[in-house]
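Before relying on records like the one below, remember that each one covers exactly one chain. Contacts with other chains, cofactors or solvent are not represented anywhere in the record.
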Amino acid sequence: MTTGKTNEENMTSDAKERFDHDGTWKDIIERFFYSLLKRALPELYEAADRDKKPTLLDKEFRDILNTADPAIHTSPHFADYVIKVPLRCGGEEWILFHIEIQARAGNLAERINHYRCLIYAHYRREPVTLAIITYKRSPGEPAYYSHSRFGTKILFEYNDLVLDELDDEELISSDNPIDLLLYAAKFALNVKEEHQKLNFLRKSVELLDERGWSMIDKRDLFLFTERIVNMKDKELVWQFKEFMAQRNKEGKAMYVPMLLRDSAAEIERRGMDKGKEEGKIEVARNLLARGDSPDAVSKIAGLPQEKIRELMN
């Protein structure tokens, strides 16, 4: 799952602990688009030509929104996308799929209708719209846009996926990868206590172990989970690193979460505190877990290549 930049490029030194909502949802929409479609719009999922990649019209959509209205540029949402989805009916058939991810209460229905008008004016096609709502929606909040004046009436209804209304057990037991991500996003919405975050991350690793998905899928799913849970307590972060390191010792699947991507100096300092030889081995394991090359690990940890290869097996 790539964003075109390294993690360090995406996060300035004074903002590394802040959760990048926009980037995270963009990653997940691109990486698991058809899984999301299966959860949110099964009818479109069945009609889509899933052998072809959908096309994100990011630049075009930003051009569409290049208006003088400041509200369009500062609306309270994480990300919005127009996606060209190919259909199985053949030829050049496709539909426009508009996704709006709403972070907090606001004029969502009105804004989505505004976007619909802009999209139609540009493409001369009506989009299929999905709102992913990541906050607790109030009972009286409208789920559609309506307007009536002097006999002219407009009713615009759109699809929505409300995190807080999803069933936890259904999400956990699902074989759809996106459901575990929605489960993590719902957890992050409702839980702020750091120890609960630690327990949730451990549980997430175990849930992924139970799935028959590819290692790459598991890695990307866990990266999203870790980013959206956003555990900040440094000591608990280290406890989670040790949990992952112990799993590696036991020969279990190794993911490469961002929490393990400390500087080499920090990894070395924490490892060396445990005693010379044991510290070197822990340094090596953590460097391997964050994706460093065997040569680099050998030099930093002060261990021979043979020992590094042994730790990798």
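The longest strand covers residues 77-86.
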